[in-house]
Design a protein that fits this description.
Radius of gyration of chain B: 21 Å
Shape of chain B: globular
Radius of gyration of chain A: 18 Å
Distance between the termini of chain A: 60 Å
Oligomer: heterodimer
Structural class of chain B: mainly alpha
Helix content of chain A: over 70%
Distance between the termini of chain B: 29 Å
Structural class of chain A: mainly alpha
Largest interface: A-B, 43 and 42 residues
């Protein structure tokens, strides 16, 4: 069976990465911004796994890195959601446009 | 594990022990005895600092994932000192807050992450340490839960730090593709300059620049600094920033040592931008915390001037400067927090006539501002001098010209506050702000440090002996 070449996987992950960046800058809802960050982190995971499988199949470093990224991302998102819930309860908004009490 | 390896891990072990003690105290409802609790915690932090001064041990642990050497021990000691001083200056704030133990648990967890990051010998540990040092800080920034400012600061910090981590990790994943094994030694040995590694370097640089709030990645800084409680702002501006500077230097000087030409170019541009933008924006700030946010951006620009030396003296002078910056900033934030806790005021105009009502605080703030501006008898002058010397040694004359101009601009910024305190008449006289023992000690240590360090030549020589550039 013919394998998918590495470049295809890398193009996929780069597209995901920049989609995530675009989403992070263009969305105004905090939850959606968090989802964009997840997209970025997942593109990185794809990168690691692809490099590991195609270039360095005799070791598992990329896979381990991916496991750690997933775990840390979960911690990060849970804290972000805790802060968002606090904002929502106290001020009834999760739109970044409304978090503008401080300006230069 | 032998005694020897415990000696190498002592910073981490002691901090972990303190965290456990605090967790047990929390379960026992020790929150109610405010004063004795806070005094106890400060004594534990003092012990932590003293343990750090014990004879050092060098070597690697966990198959090279953890490493320790003289310079790392010194850097950890500097940060430990900062932690102790911050804890002392935030005594009054914590006395009024009901969640003291959580505050310390979060702060110490972040410190543990800082230590892991500093000692890392593998990118995985560096990444974990970096995350562990920023995630608790976002919770701390949101510590005044009922204030909108504080929640905003929290969400801005966590979103921007998660985003910057994403950028950093993308770079790391490309680096992994290029070298195949992410231990520092292996990367340094196998890294070749080509398009892929250059792209990886650009992403990694971007990620670090976010964490150090270098222009053009600084947009989160001012808001987060302004919204957070003063103690947290202090921690962010001193310890988070200082530790990332240390790690950034070691990454540039060891991992990317074969890329020197490429990163010198990038560092020059980033440094010029940070100094100029930081100083120009600081000029129009009214809120003191916001002012210090831009001031810290400008100071990081100066550290980059030193890093551009790309040699042993770059490492020495940057470490030395971070020590001085730490003392000066903690002194200023100590004064700001004392006055804010007593009167709730934190804009520059409120400080009019401070010298008449609170001469002690006005003098200390003035000394620390002189040090930040780099006026000769204070340590800040020597710090900046060595940074510029380092850059001069590498022949970065354009950068030096910009640094010289910016020193003048920053002089205006800092002296504006000194003038407000000493010359302007008060519109509304501030009450005499009381000061407790911890605050007195912390401010005294900072002020004495600022005045003396510049003249203690052995200190600089000691750092110079410890700094080794491979």
């Amino acid at each position: 069976m013919e394998q998918v070449p590495l470049s295809h996987v890398l193009i996929l992950s780069s597209c995901l990465f920049f989609l995530g960046i675009y989403g992070f800058f263009s969305r105004r809802n905090m939850i959606t911004m968090l989802m964009s960050i997840e997209l970025i982190l997942n593109s990185i995971n794809i990168n690691f796994i692809a490099f590991n499988k195609y270039l360095y199949p005799h070791q598992l470093e990329g896979v381990f890195f991916t496991l750690f990224i997933i775990t840390v991302a979960a911690a990060e998102v849970s804290l972000a959601i805790a802060i968002i819930i606090n904002l929502y309860r106290k001020f009834n908004t999760i739109d970044v446009e409304d978090t503008n009490t401080m300006k230069f | 594990m032998s005694i020897y390896s415990y000696l190498m891990l002592r910073f981490e072990v002691v901090i972990t022990l303190i965290i456990f003690i605090l967790l047990v105290l929390k379960l026992n409802d020790a929150d109610k005895k405010e004063k004795s609790l806070l005094i106890g915690i400060n004594i534990m932090l003092l012990l932590n600092f003293i343990v750090g001064l014990l004879p050092m041990a060098e070597g690697n642990l966990f198959m090279g994932f953890f490493r320790s050497n003289g310079l790392l021990v010194l850097q950890k000691n500097i940060l430990n000192l900062g932690l102790l001083l911050i804890s002392l200056t935030s005594y009054n704030y914590l006395l009024k807050n009901n969640n003291r133990i959580e505050f310390y648990i979060l702060m110490l967890s972040s410190m543990l992450g800082v230590f892991a990051m500093l000692s890392s010998g593998h990118i995985l540990v560096l990444y974990l340490g970096l995350e562990m040092s920023t995630i608790p800080i976002a919770a701390l920034a949101n510590f005044n839960k009922s204030m909108k400012n504080s929640s905003e600061a929290g969400i801005k910090l966590i979103l921007s730090s998660a985003f910057s981590t994403g950028i950093l990790l993308f770079g790391i994943s490309l680096l992994y593709g290029a070298v195949g094994n992410l231990s520092f030694e292996n990367i340094q040995a196998n890294l070749q300059l080509n398009e892929l590694t250059l792209l990886a370097f650009a992403f990694i640089l971007g990620g670090f620049a976010f964490k150090m709030s270098i222009v053009p990645f600084h947009l989160w800084t001012a808001d987060v600094y302004e919204g957070s409680p003063v103690a947290v702002t202090n921690y962010l501006s001193v310890i988070s920033k200082g530790s990332v500077i240390f790690v950034f230097i070691s990454v540039l000087y060891s991992i990317f040592s074969s890329f020197t030409d490429a990163w010198l170019y990038a560092i020059t541009i980033l440094s010029i931008l940070s100094m100029t933008v930081g100083n120009l924006f600081a000029m129009r700030q009214q809120n003191l915390k916001r002012f210090f946010a831009f001031s810290s951006i400008a100071q990081v620009g100066f550290v980059l001037v030193g890093i551009a030396g790309a040699s042993k003296i770059g490492l020495t002078s940057a470490t030395y400067f971070v020590l001085i910056y730490l003392l000066s900033n903690i002194a200023s934030f100590g004064v700001i927090s004392a006055i804010f806790d007593a009167t709730g005021k934190e804009t520059i105009n409120d400080y009019k006539g401070l010298y008449k009502s609170n001469p002690y605080f006005a003098l200390i703030l003035a000394v620390s501002l002189f040090s930040l501006a780099g006026i000769p008898p204070t340590a800040g002058f020597f710090g900046k001098m060595f940074l510029l010397t380092s850059s001069m040694g590498n022949g970065m004359y354009v950068l030096l010209a910009f640094a010289a101009i910016n020193i003048v601009i920053s002089l205006y910024n800092y002296l504006r506050i000194v003038k407000t305190m000493f010359i302007d008449d008060a519109v509304e006289v501030l009450p005499v702000v009381g000061r407790n023992f911890g605050m007195k000690m912390a401010l005294a240590v900072c002020t004495i440090g600022i005045i003396i360090i510049g003249f203690v030549t052995p200190l600089f020589q000691y750092i110079d002996v410890l700094s080794i550039v491979k």
